[in-house]
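Reviewers of the previous submission asked for a worked example of the structure-prediction workflow described in the proposal, so we include one complete record here. The input consisted solely of the amino acid sequence. No template or homolog information was supplied to the procedure at any stage.
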Amino acid sequence: MKKLLAAIAGLLVIATPVMAQTTVDTYWLGGGYMDTTFTAGDDAHSYLETSGSGIMGEFHGKDYDDNPYGYLVDTVTSSIDAIVNGGYIWFENTRDDSKDSMYGAPGQYSYSYVGSTGTAEMAWYSWTNYAEMANCEYAKPTTTNGKNFEASGSSYTINHMLMDSSSDGAQVLASGSGSAMIRLMGEKAGGKDTYFNMGFLPVCGDGCAWDNKYATFDGSGAGTFALHGWADNSLTVGACPSGSCVSVTVPGDGSPDSATYDLVIGYSGVFSYPDFGIKGN
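From that input alone, the workflow returned the following structure tokens.
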């Protein structure tokens, strides 16, 4: 799965829908362009697009049709494990329904993009239900080097964003020449108090168990690493250096995007950022 020839003639796409729980499994191998949309009733939807001289991967979408507690909102999962040469991978997930009276409004959204003149990889899993979106990557597929997003080439871009139902959120970006890898073991967003949490401990984990491993960046060559956050009430940016957890809070006044955080680091050589976790509401 993790080895791809520089160019493959033609494109083979295999889609296998299974109706018992509205399960869709799609596999592709070849060169060119491929896109697909997975719609789980009125509960959630996903969009995938990829293009390049060589593309390979798999997408899995599942509407569990389970209606937990009679809330009229099903559990939905979608995931991608893909690699491309000389092209890009674009993956979106949106939570469309909620038990509003208890958990607030739906509309949580995650966006992921990896592109490169060389090789780009993405491995991502998204989960939604009546309460929230929770993209927990523990024990799920990873890229060649055990990450969620990675790219190498003379020019590459990695872009991942998470937003809550009020469009508050966070974005991590990397671009440059050489190589870059991002590991993001978990994130959540929900409508109750309109919160989001991108890799800020704990998310799908406990305490500092994932010290320096939860939301990490590693790059080599010449590039830029950036982290942005915006919220109405507050932002908390975390770091978990060995031995203790520390964080910085940026207060807001309740007005739109009154709490903001912007970090941009240019580097040359080898560079790592051990924990870029950020949360807000």
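Confidence is low (pLDDT under 50) at residues 1-9, 205-212. We consider this example representative of the routine output the project will generate in years two and three.
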